[in-house]
Design goal:
single chain; 406 residues; alpha/beta; Aspartate Aminotransferase, domain 2; 7-stranded mixed β-sheet; 3-stranded antiparallel β-sheet; binds pyridoxal-5'-phosphate
Amino acid sequence: MNRFRLVAPAGAPLPARTVLPSLVPSGGDRHALAALLRERLGVQNPFFVSSGRAALAILLKAMRQGSDRREVIVPAYTCFSVPSAVARAGLTIRLCDVDPKTLDLDLNALVRLDLRRALCIVPSGLYGLPGDLVALEQIARTSGAFLVDDAAQCLGATKEGRACGSFGDAGFYSLGRGKGITTMGGGILVTPRQDLARRIAGIVRDLRRPSAWAVGAAVASSAAYSTMLRPSRYWLIDRVPFLELGASRFEPDFRIARLSAYQTRLATRIFPRLDSYNEIRRNHADQLRSGIEGVEGIEIPRPVEGASPVYLRFPVLARDGADRARLLARLRRAGIGASTSYPTAIGDIPGIGSYLARHQEVCPGAREIAARIFTLPTHPGVTARDIEVIVEAVRGDQGHAPEASR
Ligand SMILES: Cc1ncc(COP(=O)(O)O)c(C=O)c1O
């Protein structure tokens, strides 16, 4: 075992040659990034803000203007930022169960809900696996609800050849740590609807500019991160307790501001690398799948039909919580930072009760996922040797997993 090597659970390289030139002010950054998004993803009317959750909260505020519907349907297993944004927008959370076979909303459970009170439906696309966005568009349309295409984890993924983020009435991406590309925080909202774009523009216009402190933190953390993702260094930051890497919190009181000019420039410089990062992630996912498919007690959620996922992480379901703990400990000993993902189903988050709509359906799929899921790293820092180590650790044939190489 090498105590001084740990493969990060997720991440995107942030090379110094993208960070350093971004420090220099230049004009027209937002236009350059908007043009890249339009050309690569076909999305329109982009707005650049401080995080994905800020993007979602702004979208929800724009959607609630002129509607008396107050419920937002979110997956009962997802990132805690999603219900945080609903609460921040002053709306009520309605949970919809999630299918452990695909990690997508359970569409049978969705159509059983009373959708007449739903302002909008927000599927998640966890780990880079798109949901059934075509079916969801249809369900939203017939029930008079908006569809928000949350592509926080799906930047570059497609469904039926269409870019994630472009479905429904509006979509958004995250530039947070561990996403497809990162500027150490950031969110991009997009919408094809001019009426929504006008309302969003009104909200964004009134937002604070990022504080000098926030810009300084983005500069410092991006510079540090650009050197720390390597396994030979990541073990070090993993041990700094106050960083709480990978923690997911329900916190409605988050900062909402515009994206700093520095981060907008950084996003513009890093965006052209997205496809090559995603190509590597997909290849790693293919290798992991062929290595561990069929192992007893392991289930691999499958992409929905017509989806081309980007596999920000490779999700796996263990037999149960005890088996998962054993596998994670074995991976950790082998120098692999696998993760248990979000700790509970959304309905089980302590203190969330007052934000939930009354009379929730039971969501057994979400609870099952929370108990069994773990994710394997796929990012560009993962080596061919790491993949072998992961596969052997999960297969567990030899009892002891070999050590990851330096
Ligand atoms: C599915 C999903 N939606 C929304 C968000 C919010 O993004 P951010 O972390 O940038 O606020 C995240 C990110 O963590 C996410 O995973």
